[in-house]
Amino acid sequence: MSEIIFLSNVRLSFPQLVEARSSVQPSPTNPNPVKKYSADFIMPMTHPGVQQFGAEYTKMATEKWKEHAQAVMQIIQSDRKLRCFGQGNEKVNGKTFKPYDGYEGMFYVSANKDQAPQMIQADGSAVDPTNTMAYQALARKMYGGCYVNAAIRPWLQENKHGRGVRCELIAVQFFADGEPFGEAVADATALFKPVAAAAQAAPAFPSFLG
């Protein structure tokens, strides 16, 4: 089994931590797609986590694929669907055709898990996963754009769907606030004026009620 990688002070994006969701819509051939908890973690190319992730991935690939490791890794690198990591410029918004907020010039790792990941409190202790209210309260605190500490574990895929590298989401801890990703909430208060209190007439009953 691969080593757990600790990512300190990285930016959270596309968090799905409150409840598990599927990345695909149900269909006649797949009526019950797998639901997962997931998130992206964004960091500068100089972040220690980048080198740590790369070293662990290379070690795993070499142990599993032996002399074919470099060839397999090149195939994985050439297809973003086969890997859980990449350069931020690859994460392009389909509407603007530009990298998503916070990704440009960065490195990212996508991680997920069928079961809820550990939610780590400020004191370093984990929230009891059976305490749904406490778990969700902490998970809701973690929004796209904030900074977190995270524990992830890469693993290698080799099955009927092909070879690839994926990442398991182990635990997340809120670290600091950051500029939220996405468009700012529109402020329409300037369009409204105070409303004078008005006498309310008794409501008229529809005729069919007699």
Properties at a glance:
seven-stranded mixed β-sheet; OB fold (Dihydrolipoamide Acetyltransferase, E2P); globular; alpha+beta; 210 residues
* Number of E-state strands: 7
Give the rounded overall mean pLDDT.
89
Number of helices: 3
Quickly count the domains: 1
- CATH level-two architecture: Beta Barrel
Q: What is the rounded Rg?
A: 23 Å
Structure description:
By secondary structure, the protein is of the alpha+beta class. It has one domain (5-20, 35-182): Beta Barrel (OB fold (Dihydrolipoamide Acetyltransferase, E2P)), CATH 2.40.50.140. 17% of the residues lie in helices and 32% in strands. It has 3 helices and 7 strands. It has helices spanning 48-65, 69-77, 132-140; strands at residues 5-21, 36-44, 85-87, 106-113, 118-120, 147-159, 162-176. The chain has a 7-stranded mixed beta sheet. 22% of the residues are buried.
Q: How are the secondary structure elements laid out?
A:
Layout: E1 5-21, E2 36-44, H1 48-65, H2 69-77, E3 85-87, E4 106-113, E5 118-120, H3 132-140, E6 147-159, E7 162-176
Parallel strand pairs: 5-7
Antiparallel strand pairs: 1-2, 1-6, 2-4, 3-4, 6-7
